[in-house]
Amino acid sequence: MSGAGVADFFYREAQRLGYLARSAFKLLQIQQQYKLIKPGSSVLDLGCAPGAWLQVACQSLGPLKTGGVVVGIDLKKVKVPSRYCDARVQTVCADVMKLPEHQARALSPQKQGFSVILSDMCPPVSGINIKDAALSVELGMRALDLAVGSGALSDVDTTKMDREGQLDGSASDSNDCGVLRPGGHLVIKLLESEDTKEFSRICKLLFRKASWLRPKATRSSSREIYLICQSLLPSVGSRG
Prior knowledge:
The chain is of the alpha/beta class and 240 residues long. It has seven helices and nine strands, in the order ααβαββαβααβββαββ.
């Protein structure tokens, strides 16, 4: 529903097509523009309730025979949607803010990490912009930390880029590696604020490309924006 309480185009389309929420169209646009999820991908969906992104992620894997997995994590128990999902999708009830990296990695195929991490996590909106934005960045940083490892984040400010665009320093030697595979992609939802600029700067040091997108399905009253991080640098990614 829109802010005025009237069903809008994306709400009606979600109902018509069998998606659990209008947010499905946000990931559909991201997928159409960036093609992050490919047949055989392993996808981790942080904050997966109510399950619309699980539906789109599974669709993006292609036919069942092409393989791949989708793992959704949320504070709430989320039932795997019957529409658009198949046996490749599973959900876990857990607090992402407290989830150890080794437990998240254990959910991936052969415990080798994920090729795509999606974070649609957002704090309950209080209406106090500064507070909401700060909580949003906290959730975003947790997603980034889980993806690349706290070791990489702690080193990013003191690490220089080499001529190939790879991080040159102690980040690659950290035992505290994340659960995103080298070359993997990360999508993070944030609420626009001054802090998002710094967030983008950090991600541009860790990924080959980081760009902002405000999907068409985003409500006009919302400050939501998505940071699309493509191709985690090899010296940052998790080790098998």
